[in-house]
Structure formats: structure tokens, C-alpha cells
């Protein structure tokens, strides 16, 4: 397993470079112009000069290696300089956003707190609720609990966040005035009161996002549990006189986890960039909002960097999932 | 329902009462605490010279100021100078080749250093640097030199006579930045100065304490602001992001924010939000006109690239003026306004709807819908439905129109309505809407940009900065037509070309007399609209913003930044 | 036994089997209700427009903002009309006609895109899980597609294929193909990874080893032994995929990448009505209900089918 992991890690380097290249060419091909959001009152020749100042005059085979160099050499140098007070970078050009003309990594770092608080938290909450729901629903198939769980999760999944989010705002912010409709990203949690405020401002987006996660994960959990509950080994285990909880929670659960692990692993990268609509509605302004604004503004360095970081995360999470398969089911051999 | 009406009434009286003695809102700086502003487009940068985006200009206007601004009537108001230079007061030379600005004495930057003419000269150098990619370069067009005559006097010399010498340093587009702060940021180095671009030192009422790009700005009152009693607010939170509905809701319904910018929403949506009684929508008109542009060249995909949509291939039916006129006659502009803009729109037939001196008041012929007249016009021109499919044709050319615009709820409603009307006069319409970032982008590789115009008719809105339409009207000269050789760049997207028009544009550029300028501008406007129907204006679009009922002093201004007078804003209520 | 009798028994056996499946399916109340609803909604959107002959795009601005007919019960002053039982929108378009027309597009997009995604996902998942040699390549390809940003991808597809497709299939069918393909090829990855994970575990099970030891060829292994055992996660993917496809379509229209604006779909009607949902709740309720109930119905049918197809459950 260790050798497999190391081999996979080594393979991911060329894979990621190839992915970076494909993403870059895709952005290059896509119609779009960083000047599109400038007012029409700015004449075309001025816009052309601005494009040149952004470095867009260079062909792609110059800009792509430049981005690679900035991403893999210059940015780590700045990071080391920032941590240890050295001066490796020596004023080299960092990856600069077209829109804000500031280093993209600083903006990404700025977005992390609210992304983790809201989207990350909702994912954890969603998964933690989903697993027991899935297990109980399968174990007590067609009970009231199962029926209610199915109903709520399917409705929850099929109602898009652009509707459910606004509905929550209309109920809890406009009518009842209990919760703020606009997330304050500058809020610092220092004491109990500020923590309560943080809870109040994150509860609605977390609910909307967690509902989606819960619906998805619990459906897979339930289906997979049902498949396994009917297997012969379950009958054998029961016949051997094992307690019901041991049978369900040790044997069945373990064998049912493979699709669930896959889904959870695939969902983690989407924390960092998948919650676009919900972030927009609640003005959370996390990474998802950053990505969509960058996409709309054709901010190629920003889009490129965020999507590449996501690609790294995707590759790593899928690797972790593959390793977990081997642990959950030792019969799965990769070597 | 009754209770609600009663409450509304109560709120109305509460908000009216303080307004009565609103002028008496004097006091010390910072007395009114916190101000919350929301813009649904988040500012990316606070340096207006590196970004022309409205959101960036307006947020920056809280911090950096030009020498003079336009007020809500479009008149010029001195800000950092004692008076606006004119020919009458000797500030503008008789031959219109130079303008001399005299800074007010004793003005300080927010860091306490004095504002001098060197800063003004530096600002011009910064923007005119060939490598900087300055977004406001067109404001400095024709500028030969900018020199400091003494510590407080700046003289701008133009290459030739400049009838409108108020390009540089006037209006929210060209504020003065501090030489000391930006000295290291010239030209290619401009993007490296993140700290300066995110927190410019200014002379305005507020100072940036925290700038988070595309998210939120926090500001505090400027200790060195020229009026010791202003601003009334000690701190400002400027939040960005979301959408217009959410921004409107936060001011009009939940009251979390005090001011929301540019609520591009259907009038009934705004009205129903305003019923909550927490805030008030305000509107004002500028020069923004929603219009249909007629393609005078043939965009047919059957033509080869290089000929398609160029002057080499005239449009099969839109080159017939009768068709263009009939299309315009079929439109009920009053209904468009009612559906799309409400109080923030008025029907217009003019490309230049204001300011008053430039508006063509005679041009009102299009305001009344005339379906029968349109039909008769088409009949007369030989466009008849001979094969009974409901679509008129002539010489085998059918009136089928591809009508494109950017993606936007109101525009899609307009498309639906106009398609319906055109259907009534026997014209079939295919609708297409394109993402704004593609439509308004200048990507020469994309077939969907508005300049390339691979459609028969397209709809969007455009306006001009400040109060002078010269540059705006000059966009329709023959040489400004987008074509493959110019990478499809150009502002004359109809490919309109008339030597008489070009000659009059040249005449306008050489005329200084206001009455004469008005006459020429109006004639140019009429040539494009009522005479040829090349451009079919639909709605003169105002701006709708909203402010909380407790926020006083708001004067909505469409000629400059909306936040132009934020220093005068104050809180209505008991915390005074 | 001769060949003829073998075929005969096989045919008879399979007929019995499907009869069993149907018998089992009928015992699942949710599944039957789901099937009934699905038939109803399909008829509603296909036969409905024949009975309710109103052009969904027809504007009647003087007759806008009509409330649904039941509002007359709560509020006698409400503006209602039997001419538009579900009311009209802000431009006076009949909402019932729009729900019908929108449903046709939404269901077509949802089903086609979902089937495409599930098909690609299952194919890639089974191949990667079963053939070790293909695993690395196919899974790295999956990683790549997962990493591609959707918006630029669709923009590029639009740029490259819109005009040729429009020329070949007309504006509406062309854009339909583009949207369905766009959604289909960007949403199969989860199914692929899940199927692969399950197949990898399954192929080490005893029954697969047994089947392999008697020389079962790979394609029979996959169709007879592996696929039936990964049906339940595929069913879940399919149900969730249907909902995602219908909603994604509305997000695309919102970005200007979807159908032309005069082309209603459930998702788009819902999206356009969100701004007015306090004043006109019916405009969000109808399309929202239609989407949710369809997804719920498909989910129950999936559940019923899964039970009915599983011989272990069917016997009980």
C-alpha cells in the first residue's frame, strides 16, 4: 500500500501539470475579456493598452511557462520569506490578479476563514447528520423515519439554493428579523457574544448547504447499507450470535462505506469553490464567490490558480479515497 | 393590511419630520457613528486609474477627490480649487489651448502632508505613462503638458484648441493621487503597489483602514478633512457582492444597510420592497440610453469571414431605411418603461437625452406606437407576405431577425415584448442572450461580442462621462467601424458611414460657442436616430438607488460618483 | 437437452422473472405512486398543451399578474380569471402553459443528460474497476474532467459548436443537444468513481472468483455479475443526477448559456420568480413542486425497482 501511495503521488505530478495545461488552454480558448466589465465610455484603444499592460499581448506559450514559474518557484519563495524572514524571492513578480492587481495568494488566504467557517462547517455538519440517517433508514427500511428521511432529503436536494436561500432570508431576516441577511466577513470571534453573532450569521448558509450534502450522502449510505444487509455474511454473523450492533456497525457499515467514502472525498474539493450560489446569496464572499467573479471578469491568473489548487485537492482526495478502499476492504489490492 | 398601512403612515411622518429641519444637521465630525453601504458589485481596487469599473470609481470617491465634480444637475462644482476655471474668469485661455487650476490653500492629505501642484502634475504623469495601461487615458487626450506654475497652480496645455478642457482632474474618473505614495508605482510597476492601490491616501472625507478585494472595505473619518465638522459618520463599512435584489432588500426591508447602489430591478419588485417602510428608493436621470442598434452590414454565416458583417456586404433588408423605421414604429416605449424601469426610466427617441442643452426636444416621433403605420410603411416599400407564412418578404428575402443582447432579466422581458410587436407587423424574430462578460468583451476570437455584431439587431445601453457628448457622437464616424483588420475593435458598431456626419463631427471638435455646439450635437443626434433610424433609442434609463430613511443628505448624482457628497451625509434621528 | 428446449425454457423463465419483478414492484406503494405521478406529469406536459391550447410565449400585458384561481377563496378582491387558472406572470404570459412547455424541456433535458451521464459514468467506472490496466488512465482522466471549470468549458463548447449545430438542427434542437451534452459530460465523474470503487471490491468476492474460474468472459462477467450488484448506487446517482440536470439547466440559462429567453423551462421559471416570491408565491411553488415531485417520484421508482430486481428481497 505504501509503495502504491508513493507511486500514485509521483504519477500525480505529470497528471497535475497536464491538467494545468488543459485548464490554461481552456481559459485561453474561452471567449471573454478582462475589459468586458469596464464601462463602454472607455474607448477601445485605451482598453487595448490596458490589455497590453496586463501582459495579454504575449502569446500563450510565453504566459503558461511564466505562470508555472510563478506558481512553483516564486510563490513558494515568498511563502518561505514570509515565514522565515529570508529574501529568496528578491522582488520577483508574483501571480497578480487582473481585477485587483494584487497577488492572488493573498486574496485566497483572505477568503479562507469564511470559506472554512461556512462551507467547511456545513460539509462536516451535513456528513455527520447524513451517516446516521443513512444507517437508520436502511436498517429500518420503510419505517416512518426512513420515509420522512427520504422525503426531506429528496425535496431538499431538488430545491435549488437560489430558491431555498432566498426563502430562508425572506422568512428569518425580512419577516422575523432574527438573523442577518448579509454575512459580515470582517467579524472577529473573540468572546461568547461575538461567537453567538457568528453562529447567527452562519446558520442560514450552513443549513442550505448542509441540506444538499446530507441528502446526497445519506442516499448513498442507505443504498449501500441495504445492499449489504441482505448479504449472506450478515446472516452468518447473526447466526454466530453476534450482537445486532456489532453486526450492523462493524460488519455491514464497514462494507458499505466504499461508495460513501467516494462521495465524501469528491465533495471536499467542492467546499473550496463549489458553493458559488449560496455564497452569493448570503454575501459570504468566500472562495466560490471569488472564483465566479474571476470567471465573469476573465481574471485568468485568479481562475487558473484557484482551479489548479482545486485540481491538486481533487487528485489528493481521490488518492486518499483509493487508499481508504484498501483499508476498508483488504481484498482490494493495488499491487 | 390595515395595520400595515397605519405603520406605513407612521413611518412616513417619522421620516418627514426630521427632513423638515434637515438643514440644521450641524455638529462635530464623527458624531453619527457607523454608515453601511452596499454595492452588489464588489470593488476590486481603489485606484481609479487601474480600473475603469464603476464600482471601483465610486468606492474610491470616498477617499480620493478630483479638483472639481459635477453636481446632480450636471453643473461643475469646485472641490480642491476655489473656482472652476472658465474663459470668463481667465482660467481657460482665449484660444482654448490651456486651462489653469488654482488649488485651495491649506488643503492636507489624510496623512497630514500638504496637497501641492506637484501631486496634480504627478497624477497626469502617472496616467499618461505609456506602460501603465491607465484606464482613464482618454480623459488626458490631447494634453501636451501639465506643469506646476507654483505650489498651488497647475497649467494644462493642449495640443490644439479644446472646446471641453475639463477632461483631466474633473469628475470621479480622474481624481488626484498623492505623488509621495505612488512615486514608485509608475508605468509597468503600477500593479506591484498593492498597498497603495488598496489604500490610497486621499483628500476625501474617509480613510481606508482595511480593504479586502471583491469583498469589503472599512473606512474611518479623515482627521485632516477640510471641513472640521464633516463627515458626520465616524466609520464606514462598504460591503460588496451578491445581487441587486439582495442589496435592495438589505436597505429597504431588513434595514441592515443604509445605502444600496444601482438597483437594477423590475419596478414592481422595488415597489414591493419599499412597502416595508425602512428605506426609500431614489432615482435620477443621466445620459444612459437603452437602445436597439441596427446592423447595416450582413451578418449571415453563409458569407466568408472577412466579408461577413463588414461594409463589403450591406444588410439584405436592414439597409432599407423603411424596414428600420417600421421596426421602430412597432415598439410601445411607454410599456417598455412600465415593465422594465418604472420611475427610473422614460421613453426617448434620442441618443443624447441630456443634459438639457444637448437634448433634441423636437425628436419625439417614435414615442407613439403605430403598428398600422409600420405595416403600411412596409407594404409601401414592397415588403409583403406573398406566401402566407406570416413573414413579409421582397425579392426572396424574408424579414427574419436575429436579435441579441446581454443576459439580464429586464432585457429578456424587453426581447419578449419586442418580438411580439415585430411579429404583429410580419417580422419573425429569433432571440439570443449572451453572458455579459462575453458580449461586452473585446475578444476578437469570439463571434458573440457586441462589436462584432453577428446578429441583425442588438440591444444594450451606453452613456458618456461628464456632460459633453462630443466623444460619444464621434464614435459613429466611418473610420470607427469594427472590422477584421482592426481586430473588430471600434465603437461604430452599426457600421454607419456618412461623410456628412463625419464632417459635422469635425466641425463640432473645432467649435467652442455653446449655442453652436448644441446645434451641431443635436443635428448629429437626429441624423443617427430620427433621420436614418440607425440607432433606435428605447428608454432613457435613470439610476435607482436606495437609502435608509434614517440617512439624510443623499443627493443622487448620475453625472459623477453617487457617493460624491458622502461628506454631507448624516443620520436622521435622536442620536444627533 | 436440445438447443430448442433450452431457448424455450429460457424465454419462459425470463417472462416469469419480469412478471415477478412487476409483482414485487407493485407491492412498493411509494414506487407505484411515483410511477403514477411520473405518468401524470409526462402526460401533463405532452398531452396538456393539446388540451390547454394557449401559447406560452403570448404576451398580454393588460392582463398581467393574474393570481391563480384558488386565490378567489381567500381574497375576493384578488385578480383572477378562469382564462388563466394558475395566473399569469409579469408580462401576462399564462403560467399553466409555461409550466407545460417548460416541463417538456426540463424533463427532456433532465432525462437525456442524466442517462448520458449515468451511461458514461457506469462505463468508465466498470472498465476502470475491472481492468487494472485501464484504471490509472481512466481515473486520471476523471481527475482532469473534475478539475475543469464548468463555465469556461461551456463557453468554449458554445463557441465551437453552437453555429454548426444551429445550422444542422435549427436553433432549438441545436441548443438542446449542446446543453444536454454539456451537462452530461460534466456530471458523470461521481458515478464513475463510485462504480469503480464498488467493482473493485466486488471483483475480489467469492462469486466472482467462482465465475471467473469457470471461464466466464469479461463482458459476461460485467453484465451478469458485476452490474446487477452495483445497481443501487447507480440508481441513487441517476435520481440525484436528474435533479442536478434540471437545476443546472436553469443555472445555464441564467448565465446566458442556455435556451433563448423566450423558451421556458421549470428551472428558469423558478429562477425568474424568486424576486417576486412574497407577492406571488404561486410562481415559485408550481415549478418548484414540479421539480421536487418529479425527482421524488423517480427516487421512489428507483427504490421500488431496486427491491424488485434484487432476487434476495423478491423472494421474501
Describe the model.
The complex is a heterotrimer of chains A (335), B (576) and C (316). Chain A is mostly helical. Chain A has helices at residues 2-29, 44-53, 60-84, 104-139, 144-158, 161-175, 192-229, 232-239, 244-271, 276-282, 287-296, 300-328. Helices cover 25% and strands 20% of the residues of chain B. Chain B contains 15 helices and 20 strands. Chain B has helices at residues 2-20, 54-60, 117-128, 179-182, 194-198, 244-252, 267-274, 321-329, 333-340, 371-380, 409-424, 436-439, 470-473, 499-509, 514-531; strands spanning 34-39, 68-70, 76-78, 98-102, 143-150, 153-158, 206-212, 216-221, 235-240, 259-260, 279-294, 345-347, 393-394, 397-398, 400-406, 428-434, 457-462, 535-548, 551-552, 570-571. In chain B, strands 1, 7, 8, 9, 10, 11, 12, 15, 16, 17 and 18 form an eleven-stranded mixed sheet that branches. A three-stranded antiparallel sheet of chain B has the order 4-6-5, with helices on one face. Chain B has a two-stranded antiparallel ribbon with strand order 2-3. With 316 residues, chain C is mainly α. In chain C, helix 5 (95-130) crosses helix 11 and helix 7 (150-185) crosses helix 11 (231-254). Classes of the chains: A mainly alpha (335), B alpha+beta (576), C mainly alpha (316). Chains in contact: A-B, A-C, B-C. At the A-B interface, helix 2, helix 4, helix 6 and helix 11 of A face helix 5, strand 9, helix 6 and helix 12 of B.
Features:
heterotrimer, B: 576 residues, alpha+beta, eleven-stranded mixed beta sheet, three-stranded antiparallel beta sheet, 20 strands, disordered N terminus, C: 316 residues, mainly alpha, 14 helices
Q: Tell me the CATH architecture of one domain in chain A.
A: Orthogonal Bundle
Q: What name does CATH use for the topology of one domain in chain A?
A: MetI-like fold
CATH superfamily of one domain in chain A: MetI-like
Please report the total strand number of chain C as a whole number: 0
Low-pLDDT stretches of chain C are 1-12
The outline of chain A comes out as globular
Q: Strand content of the residues of chain A, in percent?
A: under 5%
SSE class of chain A: mainly alpha
Rg of chain C is 24 Å
Unreliably modeled segments of chain A: none
Characterize the main sheet of chain C: none
- Give the CATH superfamily of chain C: MetI-like
Mean pLDDT over all positions of chain C: 84
Amino acid at each position: 500500500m505504501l509503495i502504491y501511495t508513493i507511486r500514485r503521488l509521483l504519477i500525480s505530478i505529470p497528471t497535475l501539470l497536464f491538467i494545468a495545461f488543459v485548464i490554461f488552454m481552456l481559459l485561453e480558448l474561452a471567449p471573454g475579456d478582462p475589459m468586458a466589465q469596464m464601462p463602454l465610455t472607455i474607448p477601445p484603444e485605451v482598453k487595448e493598452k490596458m490589455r497590453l499592460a496586463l501582459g495579454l499581448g504575449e502569446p500563450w506559450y510565453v504566459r503558461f511557462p511564466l505562470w508555472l514559474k510563478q506558481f512553483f518557484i516564486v510563490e513558494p519563495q515568498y511563502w518561505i520569506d514570509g515565514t522565515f524572514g529570508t529574501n529568496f524571492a528578491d522582488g520577483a513578480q508574483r501571480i497578480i490578479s487582473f481585477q485587483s492587481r494584487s497577488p492572488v495568494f493573498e486574496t485566497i488566504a483572505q477568503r479562507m476563514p469564511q470559506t472554512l467557517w461556512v462551507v467547511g462547517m456545513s460539509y462536516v455538519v451535513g456528513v455527520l447528520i447524513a451517516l446516521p440517517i443513512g444507517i437508520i433508514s436502511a436498517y429500518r427500511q420503510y419505517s416512518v423515519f426512513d420515509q420522512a428521511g427520504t422525503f426531506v432529503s429528496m425535496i431538499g436536494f431538488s430545491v435549488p439554493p437560489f430558491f431555498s436561500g432566498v426563502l430562508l432570508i425572506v422568512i428569518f431576516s425580512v419577516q422575523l428579523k432574527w438573523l442577518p441577511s448579509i454575512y459580515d466577513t470582517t467579524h472577529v470571534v473573540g468572546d461568547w457574544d461575538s461567537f453567538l453573532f457568528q453562529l447567527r450569521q452562519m446558520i442560514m448558509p450552513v443549513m442550505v448547504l448542509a441540506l444538499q450534502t446530507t441528502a446526497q450522502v445519506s442516499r448513498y449510505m442507505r443504498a449501500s447499507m441495504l445492499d449489504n444487509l441482505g448479504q449472506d455474511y450478515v446472516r452468518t454473523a447473526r447466526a454466530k450470535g453476534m450482537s445486532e450492533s456489532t453486526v450492523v456497525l462493524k460488519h455491514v457499515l464497514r462494507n458499505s462505506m466504499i461508495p460513501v467514502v467516494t462521495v465524501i472525498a469528491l465533495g471536499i474539493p467542492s467546499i473550496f469553490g463549489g458553493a458559488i450560489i449560496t455564497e452569493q446569496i448570503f454575501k459570504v464572499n468566500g472562495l466560490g464567490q471569488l472564483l465566479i467573479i474571476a470567471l465573469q471578469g476573465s481574471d485568468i491568473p485568479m481562475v487558473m490558480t484557484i482551479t489548479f489548487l482545486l485540481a491538486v485537492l481533487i487528485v489528493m482526495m481521490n488518492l486518499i479515497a483509493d487508499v481508504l478502499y484498501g483499508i476498508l476492504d483488504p481484498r482490494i489490492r493495488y499491487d | 393590511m390595515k395595520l400595515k398601512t397605519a405603520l406605513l403612515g407612521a413611518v412616513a411622518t417619522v421620516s418627514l419630520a426630521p427632513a423638515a429641519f434637515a438643514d440644521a444637521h450641524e455638529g462635530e465630525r464623527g458624531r453619527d457613528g457607523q454608515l453601511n453601504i452596499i454595492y452588489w458589485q464588489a470593488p476590486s481596487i481603489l485606484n481609479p486609474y487601474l480600473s475603469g469599473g464603476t464600482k471601483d470609481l465610486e468606492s474610491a470617491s470616498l477617499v480620493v477627490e478630483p479638483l472639481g465634480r459635477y453636481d446632480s444637475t450636471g453643473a461643475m462644482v469646485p472641490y480642491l480649487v476655489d473656482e472652476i476655471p472658465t474663459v470668463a474668469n481667465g482660467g481657460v485661455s482665449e484660444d482654448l489651448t490651456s486651462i489653469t487650476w488654482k488649488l485651495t490653500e491649506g488643503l492636507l492629505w489624510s496623512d497630514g502632508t500638504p496637497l501641492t501642484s506637484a501631486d496634480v502634475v504627478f497624477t497626469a504623469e502617472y496616467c499618461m505613462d505609456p506602460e501603465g495601461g491607465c484606464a482613464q487615458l482618454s480623459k488626458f487626450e490631447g494634453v501636451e503638458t501639465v506643469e506646476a506654475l507654483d505650489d498651488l497652480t497647475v497649467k494644462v496645455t493642449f495640443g490644439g484648441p479644446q472646446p471641453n478642457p475639463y477632461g483631466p482632474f474633473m469628475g470621479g474618473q480622474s481624481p488626484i493621487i498623492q505623488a509621495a505614495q505612488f512615486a514608485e508605482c509608475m508605468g509597468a510597476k503600477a500593479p506591484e503597489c498593492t498597498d497603495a492601490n488598496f489604500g490610497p491616501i486621499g483628500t476625501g472625507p474617509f480613510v481606508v483602514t482595511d480593504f479586502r478585494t471583491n469583498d469589503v472595505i472599512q473606512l474611518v473619518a479623515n482627521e485632516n478633512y477640510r471641513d472640521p465638522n464633516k463627515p458626520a459618520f465616524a466609520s464606514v463599512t462598504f460591503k460588496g457582492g451578491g445581487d441587486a435584489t439582495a442589496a435592495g432588500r438589505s436597505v429597504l426591508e431588513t434595514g441592515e444597510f443604509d445605502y444600496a447602489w444601482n438597483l437594477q430591478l423590475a419596478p414592481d419588485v422595488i415597489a414591493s420592497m419599499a412597502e416595508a417602510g425602512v428605506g426609500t428608493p431614489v432615482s435620477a436621470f443621466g445620459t444612459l440610453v437603452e437602445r436597439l442598434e441596427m446592423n447595416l452590414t450582413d451578418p449571415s454565416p453563409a458569407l466568408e469571414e472577412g466579408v461577413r458583417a463588414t461594409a463589403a456586404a450591406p444588410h439584405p433588408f436592414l439597409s432599407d431605411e423603411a424596414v428600420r423605421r417600421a421596426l421602430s414604429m412597432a415598439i410601445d416605449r411607454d410599456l417598455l418603461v412600465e415593465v422594465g424601469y418604472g420611475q427610473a426610466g422614460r421613453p426617448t427617441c434620442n441618443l443624447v437625452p441630456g443634459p438639457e442643452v444637448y437634448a433634441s426636444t423636437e425628436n419625439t416621433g417614435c414615442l407613439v406606437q403605430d403598428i398600422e403605420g409600420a405595416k403600411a410603411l412596409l407594404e409601401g416599400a414592397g415588403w409583403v407576405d406573398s406566401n402566407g407564412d406570416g413573414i413579409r418578404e421582397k425579392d426572396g428575402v424574408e424579414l427574419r431577425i436575429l436579435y441579441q443582447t446581454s443576459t439580464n432579466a429586464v432585457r429578456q422581458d424587453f426581447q419578449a415584448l419586442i418580438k411580439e410587436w415585430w411579429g404583429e407587423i410580419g417580422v419573425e424574430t429569433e432571440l439570443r442572450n449572451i453572458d455579459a462578460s462575453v458580449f461586452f468583451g473585446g475578444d476578437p476570437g469570439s463571434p458573440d461580442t457586441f462589436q462584432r455584431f453577428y446578429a441583425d439587431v442588438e440591444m444594450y445601453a451606453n452613456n458618456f462621462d461628464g456632460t459633453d457628448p462630443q466623444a460619444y457622437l464621434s464614435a459613429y464616424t466611418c473610420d470607427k467601424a469594427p472590422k477584421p483588420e482592426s481586430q473588430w475593435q471600434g465603437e461604430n458598431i452599426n457600421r454607419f458611414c456618412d461623410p456628412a456626419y463625419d464632417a459635422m463631427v469635425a466641425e463640432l471638435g473645432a467649435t467652442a460657442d455653446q449655442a453652436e455646439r448644441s446645434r451641431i450635437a443635436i443635428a448629429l443626434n437626429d441624423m443617427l436616430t430620427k433621420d436614418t433610424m440607425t440607432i433606435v433609442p428605447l428608454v432613457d434609463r435613470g439610476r435607482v438607488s436606495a437609502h435608509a430613511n434614517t440617512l439624510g443628505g443623499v443627493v443622487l448624482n448620475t453625472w459623477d460618483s453617487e457617493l460624491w457628497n458622502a461628506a454631507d451625509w448624516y443620520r436622521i434621528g435622536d442620536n444627533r | 437437452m436440445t438447443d430448442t428446449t433450452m431457448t424455450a425454457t429460457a424465454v419462459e423463465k425470463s417472462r416469469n422473472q419480469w412478471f415477478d419483478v412487476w409483482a414485487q414492484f407493485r407491492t412498493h406503494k411509494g414506487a407505484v405512486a411515483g410511477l403514477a405521478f411520473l405518468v401524470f406529469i409526462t402526460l401533463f406536459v405532452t398531452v396538456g398543451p393539446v388540451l390547454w391550447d394557449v401559447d406560452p410565449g403570448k404576451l398580454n400585458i393588460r392582463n398581467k399578474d393574474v393570481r391563480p384561481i384558488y386565490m378567489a377563496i381567500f381574497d375576493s378582491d384578488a385578480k383572477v380569471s378562469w382564462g388563466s387558472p394558475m395566473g399569469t406572470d409579469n408580462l401576462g404570459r399564462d403560467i399553466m402553459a409555461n409550466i407545460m412547455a417548460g416541463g417538456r424541456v426540463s424533463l427532456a433535458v433532465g432525462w437525456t443528460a442524466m442517462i448520458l451521464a449515468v451511461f458514461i459514468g457506469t462505463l468508465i467506472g466498470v472498465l476502470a474497476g475491472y481492468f487494472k490496466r485501464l484504471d490509472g488512465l481512466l481515473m486520471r482522466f476523471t481527475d482532469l474532467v473534475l478539475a475543469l471549470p464548468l463555465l469556461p468549458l461551456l463557453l468554449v463548447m458554445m463557441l465551437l459548436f453552437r453555429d454548426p449545430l444551429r445550422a444542422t438542427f435549427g436553433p432549438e434542437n441545436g441548443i438542446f443537444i449542446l446543453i444536454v451534452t454539456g451537462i452530461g459530460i460534466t456530471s458523470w465523474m461521481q458515478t464513475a468513481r463510485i462504480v469503480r470503487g464498488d467493482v473493485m471490491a466486488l471483483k475480489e468476492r467469492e462469486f466472482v472468483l467462482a465465475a471467473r474460474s469457470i471461464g466466464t468472459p469479461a463482458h459476461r462477467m460485467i453484465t451478469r455479475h458485476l452490474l446487477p450488484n452495483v445497481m443501487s448506487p447507480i440508481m441513487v446517482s441517476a435520481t440525484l443526477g436528474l435533479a442536478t440536470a434540471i437545476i443546472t439547466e436553469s443555472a445555464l440559462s441564467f448565465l446566458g448559456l442556455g435556451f433563448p429567453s423566450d423558451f421556458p423551462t421549470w428551472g428558469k421559471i423558478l429562477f425568474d420568480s424568486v424576486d417576486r416570491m412574497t407577492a406571488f408565491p404561486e410562481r415559485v411553488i408550481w415549478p418548484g413542486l414540479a421539480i421536487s415531485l418529479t425527482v421524488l417520484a423517480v427516487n421512489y421508482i428507483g427504490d421500488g425497482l431496486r427491491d424488485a430486481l434484487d432476487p434476495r428481497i423478491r423472494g421474501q
